[in-house]
UniProtKB/TrEMBL annotation:
Signal peptide: none annotated. The keyword NADP applies. It is an enzyme of class 1 (oxidoreductase). This is Quinone oxidoreductase 1.
Length: 334
C-alpha cells in the first residue's frame, strides 16, 4: 500500500516521501480502515518536525484525523462498523496511508450528508472549537471571547459559534486583509497585532477601543509566545485564557503580575487528552453535537486544495503558505 512516511524528524518538505508499505493487519479490538482522505493539520507537521507533545519513533506515518471505510474488525464494535464510513480519530498517527489499523472505538460513524473533505476534517477543529467555547470556558450569552489566530479555520468556526450561541468575539489577526472576511462571518471586532513590531500594551489598547472598553474574561490562544502573553494582558479581573497550541514555537510569555494581582489564569487544552478522560456517553454527545453543527452549516471547515499521496512534498508546502485559502488535504482512496 502507499503511505507518506518520514524516516527522521525534519522539515516536512524534505523528509516526507510516498513509499510502499505492507498492508497492516488488525489485532484484537482493532479495525482495519481503508482511508479516503485526511487533512494536513499543524499538529501533523509539528510531529514530522519532532516538535509535538507526543512523538512516534521514526520511521513513521503522520495523520491524526481523516475519513475512511471500515473493512474489517474484531469484537462486537468492529463487526458493527464494517462497511461504514467513519471519522478516523487516530491518536497514534498513521492516517496518511491507504490502510490503517486502530482501536475500533476510535472510529466514529459519520452523517451521510457530509462531503468528503468535511468528513475528513470532522474532528480536530470542529470539536476543539465547540468544546473550548461551550464546555471548557462555557462562554455565556452576551459575553466577550478574545481569540488569536482568528483567521484560521478553527478561528472562523469560533466566530460562527459565537453568532449561533450569542457570545461576542474580538478577533486578533496578523494581516489587515483578513478583517473583511471575518466580519462577513459575524465577527464583532477584529484587530491586527504583530508581536515583532508591537507591544502587549498596543494590543490591549486596540482591544479596548474595538470593544468599547468591555471587560473580557474569556480567551483562547493557539499561538503562544508573545502573542499569547499579550492576549492574557487583555483580560479583566478573574479572566481565563485557554492555550491549545504553539504555532509560534515559543514559550507562552505571561508576566507573573497578571496572575498574581489580577486573578487571571492560564490553562492548557489538548483534545486527545480531553476525549480520553471523557466517558463514552460524553464522547458520543460531543460527536453528535459536532455532526449536527456541521450538517446544519453552523460551522464548516475552510476547504483548500487537495493532493494525492505521491505529491506529499507539494501538499505540505501549500499547507503552510500564508493566506493559502483553505486547509490543504490528501485524497487517498476512492
Amino acid at each position: 500500500m502507499k503511505a507518506a512516511q518520514f524516516d527522521s524528524f525534519g522539515e516536512p518538505t524534505e523528509v516526507l516521501r510516498c513509499i510502499d508499505r505492507p498492508k497492516p493487519t488488525p489485532a484484537g479490538g482493532e479495525a482495519l480502515v481503508r482511508m479516503l482522505a485526511s487533512p494536513i493539520n499543524p499538529s501533523d507537521l509539528m510531529t514530522v518536525r519532532g516538535e509535538y507533545g507526543s512523538l512516534p519513533d521514526p520511521p513513521a506515518v503522520p495523520g491524526y484525523e481523516g475519513v475512511g471505510v471500515v473493512e474489517s474488525g474484531g469484537g462486537l464494535l468492529g463487526l458493527a462498523l464494517r462497511g461504514k464510513r467513519v471519522a478516523v480519530l487516530n491518536g497514534a498517527g498513521g492516517n496518511w496511508a491507504e490502510y490503517v489499523t486502530l482501536p475500533a472505538n476510535r472510529c466514529v460513524p459519520l452523517p451521510g450528508d457530509l462531503s468528503l473533505p468535511q468528513a475528513a476534517m470532522f474532528f480536530v477543529n470542529p470539536a476543539t472549537a465547540y468544546l473550548l467555547t461551550a464546555k471548557v470556558l462555557a462562554v455565556p450569552k452576551g459575553a466577550w471571547l478574545l481569540q488569536t489566530a482568528a483567521g484560521s479555520s478553527l478561528g472562523q468556526m469560533v466566530i460562527r459559534l459565537g453568532v449561533h450561541r450569542g457570545f461576542r468575539t474580538v478577533n486578533v489577526v496578523r494581516r489587515a486583509e483578513q478583517a473583511e472576511t471575518l466580519r462577513g462571518l459575524g465577527a464583532d471586532a477584529v484587530v491586527t497585532f504583530d508581536e515583532n513590531r508591537e507591544s502587549p500594551a498596543d494590543l490591549a489598547a486596540k482591544v479596548k477601543e474595538a470593544t468599547g472598553g468591555a471587560v473580557i474574561r474569556h480567551a483562547i490562544d493557539p499561538v503562544a509566545g508573545a502573542t499569547g502573553g499579550a492576549a492574557v494582558g487583555c483580560l479583566g479581573a478573574g479572566g481565563r485564557l485557554i492555550s491549545f497550541g504553539t504555532l509560534s514555537g515559543a514559550p507562552l510569555a505571561v508576566p507573573a503580575r497578571h496572575l498574581l494581582f489580577h486573578g487571571l489564569s492560564v490553562e492548557g487544552f489538548y483534545l486527545g487528552k480531553w476525549m480520553d478522560a471523557a466517558g463514552l456517553p460524553t464522547k458520543l454527545r460531543v460527536m453528535r453535537t459536532v455532526g449536527k453543527l456541521l450538517s446544519a452549516g453552523v460551522i464548516a471547515n475552510d476547504v483548500g486544495e487537495s493532493f494525492p499521496l505521491d505529491r506529499i512534498s507539494e501538499a505540505v508546502a501549500v499547507a503552510e503558505q500564508p493566506g493559502r485559502g483553505g486547509k490543504a488535504w490528501l485524497t487517498i482512496g476512492a
